[in-house]
Amino acid sequence: MSEAVAEHLRDKLAGQALQHPGKIAEVLKLVTEKKVWYEAAGWINKTFFQGRTTFNEKSLRSRYLEITQRRNRIAHDADLIDGDLKQRRPIDEAGVTDAIDWIERIALAIAHVLDDEERQDEG
To answer: Mind spelling out the 3-state secondary structure of 94-123?
Structure first.
């Protein structure tokens, strides 16, 4: 029975892009009761910035959304400035590297939150 449920969920969720933090939170509610974005923000503050930042759930979700929206403008709108058919938004190596670093931080933080729960369940 549990394998049938897991298979159904895999089929249902396989086509979802999960580019919006709310959708990610919704899906993660299937496997955890933790406030994943809240705890991920705290983990990022502590791990990457040694407590020198004050990212919270809202600001972390917002940062993630900024990155995915920019990605979508590049992929779907050729990154053109609104109303201009020739001029693109500026992009540079530092901005790209920063976006990649943030995606990595967020993924690691969410994985840490989920892994921490798994270890608590075993203990």
So the answer is: HHHHHHHHHHHHHHHHHHHHHHHHHHHHHC
Maximum alpha-carbon separation in the chain = 59
Rounded CA separation 68/89 (Å): 15
Q: What does the radius of gyration of the chain's CA atoms come to, in whole angstroms? A: 17
Q: How distant, in Å, are the alpha carbons of 3, 53, 107, 109, 121 from that of 103?
A: 31, 17, 6, 10, 27
| Structure tokens, 18 | 């999960």
Q: How far apart are CA 113 and CA 76, in angstroms?
A: 32
pTM (2 d.p.): 0.81
For the chain, the distance separating the N- and C-terminal CA atoms, rounded to the nearest angstrom, is 26
Q: Report how far residue 40's alpha carbon sits from residue 110's, in angstroms, rounded to the nearest whole number.
A: 6
Give per-residue pLDDT as tens, 4-54. 887 887 887 777 778 899 989 988 888 899 999 999 999 999 999 988 888
Distance CA 14, CA 7 (A): 10
